[in-house]
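re: the backbone from monday

yeah here it is again, tokenized this time
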């Protein structure tokens, strides 16, 4: 088990390193989305691949082994019980239980908000209007907004477009997928790093679609700064986040040519 965890973690670390060095700042966000999700699956699938080689043991060595075995005394030795594996498995299962409860609680709280608050259906999503002052965020096809600010038209249309992209492209499914892995591998810091990276790429995707709508870059950046917050966002939702702003501003100005995209993608072949 330990060997499998080390191998899969090493694979995931390599994929993340390549992403950080070669892909993160490129404007090939759709490709990056599937790269990150595939990295998780491939990393935990590669250790199952084994290569078997059969060798022929010389007869004299075989006889030596048999003779030595025949000389071994058959007296049974009472072995002491090793409790370390039991302790480690207990800690692991407690962690799985706690993270499972956390996942269920987060999911239930979001579903409860959807059920208990007024909803306004649009062509591409459903706006859930909340009384509390919140940062706009999205879960599946539901966009959570402050009711007073929305009704008084104090939320810029650019922010609404941004959140609608999250809803249409179903970015929350990516987070739910990683959350399930996180329950099983709660002790692995690479899973948390991957989730943060996936969320950042979701912001790149949403930013790109907003800019495609004809919004000027300077105006959009000012809106992001105004609506960004250090407040804790729902774990399963996607919200405008201040800690991502600097990277997002850098990537917004990046244009990646088709040739560059192909060259960067081809790096994955020798990597695999």
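seq for it, each position gets an aa:
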């Amino acid at each position: 088990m330990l060997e499998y965890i080390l191998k899969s973690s090493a694979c995931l670390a390599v994929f993340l390193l390549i992403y950080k060095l070669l892909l993160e700042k490129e404007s090939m966000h759709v490709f990056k989305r599937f790269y990150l999700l595939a990295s998780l699956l491939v990393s935990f699938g590669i250790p199952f691949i084994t290569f078997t080689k059969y060798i022929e043991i010389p007869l004299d060595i075989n006889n030596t082994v048999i003779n030595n075995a025949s000389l071994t005394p058959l007296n049974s030795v009472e072995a002491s019980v090793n409790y370390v594996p039991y302790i480690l498995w207990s800690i692991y299962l407690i962690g799985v239980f706690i993270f499972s409860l956390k996942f269920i609680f987060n999911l239930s709280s979001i579903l409860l908000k959807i059920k208990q608050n007024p909803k306004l259906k649009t062509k591409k999503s459903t706006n859930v209007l909340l009384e509390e002052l919140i940062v706009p965020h999205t879960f599946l096809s539901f966009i959570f907004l402050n009711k007073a600010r929305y009704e008084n038209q104090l939320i810029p249309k650019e922010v609404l477009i941004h959140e609608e992209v999250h809803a249409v492209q179903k970015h929350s499914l990516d987070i739910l997928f990683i959350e399930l892995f996180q329950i099983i591998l709660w002790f692995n810091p690479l899973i948390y790093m991957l989730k943060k990276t996936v969320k950042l790429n979701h912001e790149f995707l949403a930013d790109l679609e907003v800019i495609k709508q004809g919004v000027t870059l300077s105006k959009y950046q000012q809106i992001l700064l105004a609506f960004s917050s250090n407040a804790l966002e729902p774990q399963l939702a996607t919200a405008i986040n201040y800690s991502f702003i600097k990277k997002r501003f850098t990537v917004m100005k990046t244009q990646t040519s088709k040739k560059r995209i192909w060259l960067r993608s081809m790096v994955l072949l020798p990597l695999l």
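The chain has a mean pLDDT of 82. DSSP finds twelve helices and five strands in the chain.
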